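Morning F.,

Quick status update on the modeling queue. The single chain you submitted on Monday has been processed. Sequence for confirmation:
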Amino acid sequence: MAPLDDHDLSIAIQNADSPAWSVRGAAGRQLASSDRIEDLAEVIHRLLLDAQDTWVIQETAEALLARKDTIGMRYVLLAYSRADTNDAADQLGAALDCNPQWMTAEGADRLIKQYRELTTDPDAGVRHEAQQILTSLRPRQE
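Structure tokens below.
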């Protein structure tokens, strides 16, 4: 996706508040791919915890994970740690578990590296979720 100019970015931010789930989901996908993602944290977080439709959560989370960078992963883990409904938690957990990057050795190595980095994140929720995922990947030692 091409970078959003200021006008398109402004429209996507407005669309994040649309009453239509399809418009909010499209806005989440657009905003997640922005190179100005750190300026959009509040809007993205709201979309990741959308109380009206899990499709919005799914679209936003998948777009963040498709970035293949630590910040996208961080935003999903942050929302996952703060999800206050089972629907949101289930959708975010599914996005993390079903991330297609797990299908290749290179992708899995990148994900594990990102999770390790996020175990030292300033946010306790992000640290905890990253550690939980890493723990679940290691075989149990008895």
